[in-house]
Amino acid sequence: MADTTEPGSALVDFRVSPDRYRHWRLTVDGPIATLAMDVDEQAGLAPGYRLKLNSYDLGVDIELYDAVQRLRFCHPEVRVVVLTSARDRVFCAGANIGMLATASHSQKVNFCKFTNETRNGIEDATACSGQVYLAAVNGTASGGGYELALACEHIMLVDDRSSTVALPELPLLGVLPGTGGLTRITDKRHVRRDLADSFATRAEGIGGERAVAWRLVDEVVPRDRWAQTVRARAAELAERSARPAGATGITLPELAKSRSGDALGYRYVRAGIDRRRGLAEITVAGPADDPPAGLAELHARGAELWTLAMTRELDDLILDLRTNEPEVGTWVLRTAGSAERVLGYDDLLARNSGDWLAAEIIHYLKRTLKRLDVTSRSILALIEPGSCFAGSLLELALAADRSYQLAGVFTEIDPAAVPAAITVGPMNLGPLPMANGLTRLGTRFLGDDKALAAARDAAGQPLTGADAARLGLVTVAPDDLDWDDEVRIMLEERAGFSPDALTGLEANYRFAGPETMETKIFGRLTAWQNWIFTRPNASGPDGALRRYGTGLRPRFDRKRV
Amino acid sequence: MTAAPDYAEKIPNNVDLRDDRRLQRALESWQPNFLRWWESMGPALPTRDVYLRTAVNVGRAGWAHFAHVPMRDYRWGIFLAERDPDRRIGFGEHKGEPAWQQVPGEYRADLRRLLVIQGDTEPASVEQQRNLGATAPSLYDLRNLFQVNVEEGRHLWAMVYLLHAHFGREGREEAEQLLLRNSGSAESPRILGAFNEETPDWLSFFMFTYFTDRDGKYQLGTLKESAFDPLSRTCEFMLKEEAHHMMVGTTGVDRVVERTAQLMVEHDTDDAGPCGAVPLAVIQKYLNFHYSVSLDLFGGETSTNVANYYTAGLKGRWAEDRRPDDHRLTDDPMDVDALVDGRPGQIEVPALTGLNTDLRRQYIADCQTGVNRWNKILADAGLPHRLRLPHVAFNRRVGAFAAVNVSPDGELLDDAEWQRRRGGWLPTEVDKTHVRSLMRPVHERGRIAAWLAPPRSGINGKPFDYEYVHLT
Questions:
Q1: Rounded Cα gap, residues B375 and B384, in angstroms
Q2: CB neighbours of residue A505 within 10 Å
Q3: N or C, which end of chain A has less CB nearby within 10 Å?
Q4: How far apart are CA A457 and CA B63, in angstroms?
Q5: B150 with B38: CB under 8 angstroms?
């Protein structure tokens, strides 16, 4: 992985397309797609390690993410995705150890976050789009390899008396499986906890009928019947899918993006980086034109449709800043444009949510906002005149740790401006849930049904600063005399705090309410994993992660903490 | 905002109030509240007008403009010392960088806290002294009391100005709170203990202005060093006015001692009480009390808060630029007062954490000069008696010595011993009753109470018998 902390070092680009894949082969055969992992050992993102045995690094996962996205938008006919390996006798060995051993802590954490998001995306495709993932584990699936299979709806393991599924992280590396494995084993596959304990502490893993008996896989299949059984299983799952027949996908052309020094620009989204103050000022523009009149035109616009184009840009920006700009700790979000138009697009999508493409766009926006939720940056929304924090874009302000709305106008700049306003819309009331399963409004007003009802009742009306503050929809609404100072002081104060403590504080406050598998993965599992990563027992000179592959045994500090 | 010119007229200032909409808006609600507070908590004695000094600008001629003014029309102004455009930060980790013209967000909370604590003391003393007018020993002293009061009011304004100008909405809220806490109030007292003690008589007033206001001088002196330039300039100007309060205290105690010495010699007695003066022993007890309570105001011997303030550049040391060190103190040690094996002693700590002790020592040395001065009066009168500062551990409620009983000589006492002997060192009810009995008002021009010597000179070149105050 590129060292992103040094200026001038290579930046990681998340834009890729199937014709440039180095590690995956994507083939589509009617309703069944096959995504075969075939990692190019030599093509690691950074020098210093080889991606042996289908092990992966961020570069491999960027391609996987692209494939999962494209399957949803470009291949509505695909009902089942067979996730398998193009190699004989090895499915996937998980995250590359050499990469993990040399990566900085922040790189490891960012890598795990992204891979987790992609695996959640695989489950989202199965659950929300009827695009069901089938893991055809045709060789040993170890660590992150088995976790990838765990994200699939159905797991088949070849029964060759040697292939196993395994979570060897703890015994071999002294860390945890960091991509949801521990959570999905118990919460999704309902493996008994004592068996799960036995499984995760034996490096060699478990294969054959015992893997089925322990619910680690759904079935084991002998080698000689492997191909036909996979085909049959795929066909069965395809039957059950609600994916529409006869739909035509859209194309996702490469995002036009400029990135020079401290400015990133797309069509609707742009960001300026202030390195001295450690902040990025991000502006999301509303639609440049009116929403299409109907479904046909929505399909015709495809990737050009504002909501989809804006979401793709925002998604790429989040990934870029998260990976390439770790010292930019504060993101300031603004919007610019017409709130009516934003609501118009929202309305179009909501009215047509039965249409596969409209639904995909909403789900994609949902996933992108979730990405913002789990981003370890202070997120602050500034709501000024000329902004369009309405409906889907109001979610940006609701995702922020704090939001500041100008009461009125900047009298010395534009006294005739329309006062800054926000508008609650249907998109705020259900279609874009957070990882905890609640809307951002529902999370905001957890346990305060009156406040939630009041916000809902205000839907459709532009709310000025005083009203929005009264309804609890923004943190504070300073007037123009106070605005500059309040905002400056808030930003400077934020920049002075410990970044680690802020990350912890924000992550705790962002996910009030119920636990889900996703919140457990990003909260519990990730927090433990990140703690273990920084401990000498893992990453010290004698730690297990550093000693792995040297022939030396790790030396542990035996104190339980 | 049409009231703008009106404000600039009512409120003498050098902060461009006429063009600062934000400040005008803040003052619009604060100023009426301030006047209401002054009416209800300020001087209780009705007066027609008072010969007061008003600052109308910061220049040599402007800062001391004298005239008879009705007190409620007093023009509380907002003044900062002239700005030095090249001023650099003199200490801490930002040493050498240009001074800040704006509050860095990182330090906003700490700076606001410092301002609020300082600001809270200013109106507190007005509240403590509000009933003193009724027992003033002369019109001259009455006028000085009112001068101190209006200046404390102006110092409140100065802190409020900083809160309004640099701390946004929260600053305005804190400014309101400064008027809502009241000295001695059970529900919402003033922040620091000494400012909730009553000032029941004029001996207490002189002691307060000598010892407790002197703490204020030292606090302002450390804030004058602040990297936050508007605070530095505000405090620099306030120190000028504070000097007048010091004068009232110093000469006030001078005159008490002088009169007592005079009567002791005249009547050849050690106890001037029966002659209608304050006995020297009682003066010593009042001194003991006010000095020890004021020592508490400097806080604990060691303080990480103050260390942080120093490193951040928020609050320096007294006469920072005259200190012959690196002005960062990251590796320096210092000795601070401490209990060592249960007895008053000293321990070595990192210098940064001992800054409260450093400031207290500067203060103690300054207090000693006053004592020397009073002793000279006694000596000149031919008396062998001397006043003295009690031991630093005597009668402390804050810091290392709060847990022990120590005599003015530094002798460690158990509780019973302390209870038995404390009446010899601190004012008793009998002492206070005697002092109160002397407090009979003298409101006639040119006359003075029997327990107090007249001043050597009047105010602004006016004679003692000038009509400094017109009573209603």
A1: 9
A2: 14
A3: C
A4: 59
A5: no
**Chain B interface, best mutation among A483, A485, A493, by max B CB count within 10 A:** A485
Count CB atoms within 10 A of the CB of residue A303: 14
Residues with Cβ within 8 Å of residue A265, at least 6 apart in sequence = A257, A258, A259, A271
**Sign of the CA dihedral running A12, A17, A19, A23:** positive
Query: How do the pLDDT tens digits run along chain A, 561 residues long?
Result: 333 334 445 899 999 999 999 999 999 999 999 999 999 999 999 988 999 999 999 999 999 999 999 999 999 999 999 999 999 889 999 999 989 888 888 999 999 999 999 999 999 999 999 999 999 999 999 999 999 999 999 999 999 999 999 999 999 999 999 999 999 999 999 999 999 999 999 999 999 999 999 999 999 999 999 999 999 999 999 998 888 888 999 999 999 999 998 999 999 999 999 999 999 999 999 999 999 999 999 999 999 999 999 999 999 999 999 999 999 999 999 999 999 999 999 999 999 999 999 999 999 999 999 999 999 999 999 999 999 999 999 999 999 999 999 999 998 899 999 999 999 999 999 999 999 999 999 999 999 999 999 999 999 999 999 999 999 999 999 999 899 989 999 999 999 899 999 999 999 999 999 999 999 999 988 889 999 989 999 988 899 988 887 888 899 999 998
Q: Which amino acid is it at B260?
A: T
A18-240 and A258-510 in the same fold: yes
How many residues in total does chain A contain? 561
Contact B168 A489 (CB under 8 A): yes
Instruction: Say if A484 is an interface residue toward chain B (CB within 8 Å).
Output: no
Q: Cβ A482–B107 below 8 Å, yes or no? A: no
Q: Hey, where are the domains in chain A?
A: 18-240, 258-510
Collapsing DSSP to helix, strand or coil, A17 comes out as coil
Q: Which of B21, B104, B168 sits opposite A486 (nearest CB)?
A: B168
Distance of CA B19 to the CA centre of its chain: 33
Is there a contact between A291 and A345 (Cβ–Cβ < 8 Å)?
yes
- How many Å lie between the alpha carbon of A81 and the closest alpha carbon of chain B? 51
The residue behind tokens 């040119």 is B446
The Cα B72–Cα B49 span in angstroms is 9
Residue A92, strand partner residues: A141
Nearest CA to A529 among A174, A203, A200? A174
Chain A positions touching B104 (Cβ under 8 A) are 492, 496
- Class in CATH terms, A258-510: alpha beta
Helix, strand, coil tally for chain A in percent (to 5): 45, 15, 40
Instruction: Give how far A294 is from chain B: nearest CA, Å.
Output: 48
Q: Computed from CA positions of residues A372, A528, A105, A124, in that sequence, does the dihedral angle turn out positive or negative?
A: negative
- Element (DSSP H or E) covering residue B245: helix B229-267
Q: Is the ipTM reported for this complex over the cut 0.95?
A: no
Q: How far apart are CA A389 and CA A424, in angstroms?
A: 9
Strand positions, DSSP E, A266-391: 269-274, 279-285, 330-336, 378-383, 389-390
Which helix (H) or strand (E) element contains residue A260? strand A258-260
Minimal CA–CA distance to A5: which of A81, A113, A76, A103? A103
Report all structural domains of chain B as residue ranges with CATH numbers, in order of start.
4-471 (1.10.620.20)
CATH superfamily entry for domain A18-240: 2-enoyl-CoA Hydratase; Chain A, domain 1 (3.90.226.10)
β partners of residue A503: none
CB atoms within 10 A of CB A411: 13
Q: How many CB atoms lie within 10 A of CB B39?
A: 10
How many CB atoms are closer than 10 A to CB A154?
Answer: 20
Residues B114, B120: Cα–Cα separation, whole Å: 10
Among all chains, which residue has been given the structure tokens 């991606």? Answer: A51
Residues β-bridged to residue B50: B69, B469
